[in-house]
Amino acid sequence: MKTYRIAPSILSADFARLGEEVKSVIDAGADFIHFDVMDNHYVPNLTIGPGVAQAIKPWCKRADGTPVPLDVHLMVEPVDALAQSFARAGADLITFHPEASRHVDRTLQLIRDAGCKAGLVFNPASSLEVLDYEMDNLDMVLIMSVNPGFGGQGFIDEALRKAARVRAKLDAYKARTGRDVLLEVDGGIKADNIARVAAAGADTFVAGSAIFGQKDYKAVIDVMRANLAEVK
Known about the structure:
Number of helices: 9
Strand content: 15-25%
CATH superfamily: Aldolase class I
Structural class: alpha/beta
Strand order of the largest sheet: 1-8-7-6-5-4-3-2
Largest sheet: 8 strands, parallel
Radius of gyration: 16 Å
């Protein structure tokens, strides 16, 4: 049975009560907390920084005290200094866009040396070529199914084909090395399309407005899990 992870994006949460929102969505069944960082430079929007990550980190745990990973997606340029700041703030996993880093290999090493897991993010029109050189340094590949910068956008179907190509690369890599690398998809994920995304090869799903835009977070996550259970 494949393990699927649901990662609610707090970009769509109520910022006036962010700690409570994190607790509520974890109580509803979230596996990761997805934290979107935008710098109004790499993308045309400005969101939240390391201080907010540090503030919500104590909330990233289940009722029994089990930690829930803080999954930080950096839509920033340059990357290195902010990646290190987020590592100090408590990030468990940090992903970034390869075109935003002058030296992708060095940035991945900086993140790992800081004690975090590391990953690369690919926009809808980005080439996947860098994967052929960096797989040993990756814990996650994130495929954007919208253009980065704003929540609430519609899903771009071409992302399914890209996810399938990455899944083939990850499966071949696991067969060769035994290492698992997560495949996350972010953008326009909803209960009614999550199964299609899983069928294309994703195992981790970022959902923002689809969860936080509803009154009952658990009901939404339960429907998502039920739909994932139908994936062959």
